[in-house]
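So, could you explain the following?
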Amino acid sequence: MIMPNSGNCGYAYYTSTNDGYRGVWLLDSGATDHMTFTAMDFTTTSLPRRTNIANANGVTSPVTGAGTMTSSPKLQLHNTLFVSSLSHKLLSVSQVTSDLNCIVLMYPTFCLLQDILTKEIIGCGTKRGGLYYMEDLSVG
């Protein structure tokens, strides 16, 4: 289902119960923004560019903050939204490919983030239960 973008409302299309991988980022092609449920992920904070997000069921949740998450000195996720009601951290395919100038390669059992210019692998994940869990978001 395609939903119109209603200004300050972002979207998160993954919903689940706790599966033991709560602290790992999930690659989400339906998320408009990177999102985390813990403020401890932020190295710097900023004003959020959205006021709320809507999940796949249409339930909205408030965005209570934003900031930059730093995985390594060269890999930073800017404009990450803080949504305390999330069950998982979401890595937006749209945002990561734009911000990091990379491509996402999805294979049957794993995925890779690859820098377009240098061809360097800047992230990798494993597919479990139909979802890609990003275990390594670092350069080199």
